[in-house]
Amino acid sequence: MRMGMSQWLVSSVGSLAVLAACSCGDSGTGGGGTGTGANAGEGGVGNNNGGDGGVGNNGGDGGVGNNGGDGGVGAGGAPPLNEDCGTATPVDLAPGDTANFSGTIDELTGNEINSSCVDGEFNNPDTWGDLTYQLNLSGPCSLNVRTLSMSDTEISLRSVCSEDPLTDADFCANATSAGERLLIHLDAGAYTLAVQGEPGDFDLEIECGVPTCGDFVANPGEECEDGNTQPGDGCNASCVIEDADPSLEDCSAAEAGAAKLIAPGTTFIPSAAPLPTTLGAVNNANGSCQLDPSIFGPDYTYAADHVYRVRSTVNGTMTITVGLGLDGVPQCGPDVNMEPAQPYPAGCWDRSLYVRQASCGAGTELACSDDPNLYYVPETVTFAVAPNTDYFVFVDGWLGLADGSDNFERGAYALKVDLTAAN
Question: Which member of 6, 89, 107, 346 has the lowest number of beta carbons within 10 Å of its beta carbon?
């Protein structure tokens, strides 16, 4: 800091130098000099006027005042609404009610809820931000949850809210790159719903529908649910499974019936609607590519199946595909790289396909197909054929629930058979 100072002068008095502080005015006129000689001399000319007084220094500039200190960091506040289990938005619903919300997931949205559905990273902790909602259902619901979004979202539902990164949701949906839908029956009670996704805005609709046959939700007391009440498709107007086709039911029926003759080219079985369905069928055989249900526990079993006996009219190569409609379009959707959204299209279920030669029950397995990752893609087998030889084709499902409540391992289908004659 600069301060004001007096001017310092040095004067000589004899041999002593004196340092003096001075704010000087003009000096007085000096006296005359002393005459010398006989006559008195004239007085000497007096000294010149004293020097001008020194210019006083200006006062120093005032010191610059300090700015006030920055404010202290505030104490941590409560988590934002919807951020975790403790701040989930309560949603009270009775059968017949619908609730709508809008939300935003951004770079600051935390990741508290884990789900195996996020981008196919099964059982790995995900990194998408999530917002939570606490559903309080006063009665049983055919729950229909939808998100509408331009960004990629996912819906997960659990009976107990957990922020353990290794705890997955009870149910989840992540089928498309934008909006999602989750359909499920829920009894009265409390449930946690999480919407996860990439940064962006979304609209959320939660409908607690009154359970009824034909609503695409497998409700208690329903043996099947195909989203309609039309009979003749394996599931009747009361959601009761219709009688299975006895000609396709087991090896005895297949060996007793006439073989289907396949000529070069493409053949569909059946050639026209209605399509056969494994609803109501039982399990008769298992392929080598199918998983053993015992590894998942007593709640799982092998799925129901149908069996066909076919013969080729020529030497050649036969390729059989299940999962296509009679128009050749995949029944789970035209893009086999895109998981279908709920409600699943008619004929969309998790299929298996395998072929045995010569004997239905004990014949050599020639081919087996059951994609372990993409449940919705068509299954295809290819094998060499010769005329006058029986080939038994099994249309099967992945795994079923022992109580028969899972409809996704059985359903309607068509077989596309391509035969290429040997050169």
Answer: 107
Angstrom distances, CA of residue 130 to CA of 27, 127, 170, 232: 91, 9, 16, 44
Q: What is the CA radius of gyration of the chain?
A: 46
How many whole angstroms separate alpha carbon 80 and alpha carbon 131?
10
Q: What is the C-alpha separation between 392 and 402, in angstroms, rounded?
A: 26
- In which order are the strands placed within the sheet that holds 364-369? 260-262, 306-312, 391-397, 351-357, 364-369
Three-point CA angle 128, 83, 168, nearest 5°: 50
Question: What is the DSSP secondary-structure string of 350-404?
Answer: -EEEEEEES-TTTPEEEEEE--SS-TTS-EEEEEEE-BT--EEEEEEES-EETTS
The DSSP annotation for 97-128 comes to -EEEEEEEE-TT-------TTGGG-TTSPP--
Q: Which domains does the chain have, with CATH numbers?
A: 85-209 (2.60.120.380), 246-421 (2.60.120.380)
Can you tell me the distance from the alpha carbon of 158 to that of 272, in angstroms, rounded to the nearest whole number? 43
Angstrom distance (rounded) from CA 163 to CA 320: 46
What gap in Å lies between CA 313 and CA 295, rounded to an integer?
Answer: 42
Comparing C-alpha atoms, which of 311, 402, 401, 409 is closest to residue 352? 409
Round to whole Å and give the CA distance between 193 and 157.
5
Per-residue pLDDT of the chain (423 residues; tens, 9 = 90+): 222 222 222 222 222 222 223 333 333 333 333 333 333 334 344 444 444 444 444 444 444 444 444 444 333 334 456 666 778 889 999 999 999 999 888 766 666 566 666 544 433 445 677 888 999 999 999 999 999 877 788 888 888 776 665 555 678 777 766 678 889 999 999 999 988 888 888 999 999 999 999 999 989 988 888 888 888 788 889 999 888 889 999 999 999 999 999 999 999 999 998 899 998 888 989 999 998 888 888 888 899 999 999 999 999 999 999 999 999 999 998 888 788 877 888 889 999 999 999 999 999 999 999 998 888 999 999 999 999 999 999 999 988 777 766 667 889 999 999 999 998
